[in-house]
Amino acid sequence: MANQAISVAPAAPSAPFQKWATAVVLAWLIPGAGHFFLKRPIRGAILAGSVVVMFAFGLLMRGAMFEWLWTSSDMLTTLIYCGGHVANNAAGIPYYLATWMGYTQPDVAGHVHDYGTKFLAGAGLLNILAMVDAYEIATGEKD
Amino acid sequence: MNLSLSHFEASLLFALITSLVFGVVTKKTDKERLQYGLQTFGYFVLALFGIAWVMKLGHG
Q1: Which domain holds residue A71?
Q2: Which of A101, A111, A125, B30 counts the most CB atoms within 10 A of its CB?
Q3: B37 part of a folded domain
Q4: Could you give the ipTM of this predicted complex?
């Protein structure tokens, strides 16, 4: 049996759990903070500004927050409401501050409210992108 | 204080902020980021006008 050389690329050294976990949690709670922690202040400031501005516009347009609504009979409704709730939570401190200060808005008809709802969820989704970026920087996958 | 934006203004604002974040998190160099951000914003605006025309023609 011929010798077969099996070449396995050495695994890239992974960053310590504590470093990337801190960056990701910071990025979640305070938009942009993960990048500041990783010494990327300009990118952190742009991301923080984007998420906060989008969230603020959502509040000004009186967007509604999604509630956790689990119905086994209608999966689409479950997906929209549970997904929206996760997206709202992903905005971090802005979301918790707004709800803690009593922001409530029923889901009413009208394009401005509708855009507001999407802006609030969109802010959280953008923050998820920022969290992923912080993770990639912390693990050395990205500069 | 309530903000009342038109469909166009709200969509444009959404496109602007989203492309900014896409540009920052996607590419590696500042030049690539700027280029990708502008390109994404352009695609958003193009889709905005395209979908608007489809809805206008669809509704007659």
Answers
A1: 17-138
A2: A125
A3: yes
A4: 0.89
